[in-house]
Amino acid sequence: MVWIKLVVCILVIFFSGQKVAKYGDIIAERTGMGQVWMGVIAIAAITSLPELFTGISAVTLVSVPDLTVGDLIGANAFNMFNLALLDIFHRNGSLLEVASQAHRVTGWFSLLLILVVTVSIFISTRFYAMPIGWIGWYTPLIIILYIIAVRQIFYYERNHPTHKEAAVYQGDESLKKVYIYFGVSTVLIIGAGIWLATIGDEIALVTGWGQSFVGSLFLAFTTTLPEITVSFTAMRIGAVDLAVANMIGSNLFNLAIIPVTDLIYVKQPILSAVSEGHLVTAAAVIVMTLIFIIGLHVKPRRLFRLSWFSGSLIILFIASTYISFIAA
Hints:
328 residues, mainly alpha, two-stranded antiparallel ribbon
């Protein structure tokens, strides 16, 4: 039954996530938001709602911080893997050959935040959590860095405007109807995210796999379905910057969810209550993000639809997943 529940939950998140992205994009388009800003901030936040509510429900309902952190870091690894797939399926050369340099700002801040999280897990689990009350020292730092990142992305886009891209979704509905559809779809994602946390815990118990592996693989894959759907749709219609911004922006937003769950998890600083197994996935995300930033500078060329950029990301993702499975 647990696998049937997982399939049903995946379907709910997939279809409701697609609707959230659709109507979120219409709202963003009609309010005149910039392309990079829309992808990194608006659409990325919208498509990361499953990670947010899965994380909250995992620490409040089932009190399993391993699932929360595993889902967030694992989702970032999946997003980088999905960037590799986007690069392979992009028709006219490598994806990064045509992507805007504005993504470098998001990439660098994403790298900085994952470094903070990785160091925090290592110090908190092996030495001392350095708590501030019940939260970790890293929580205010991550919040400050995320606010700075949002501000810098906004100013960078304003000072370096990119070409206008086609909207991912077209719609002639009234704005009132769009807000209603958006709200209903968001409620469905919230419900599915809460349900998903309990399913992940069941899978860990039934299979005997570690909660860090279940969070990094099963929950991460499920909760990144909205990002996958939006980015592949965006690329298919030629909105490359939106596709890339959604993936990298989601990585940035996912890491900003950790302070939220840390504030809610009152037993102890959340990163001191998780497995060191997450360090494997976090290290892979660090290297993958560096490869992405380098790729924006070097502009990788493809051979038989595979570039060093996409090939490296795929190898790192498979290797980290295998190591996490063995460690579990």
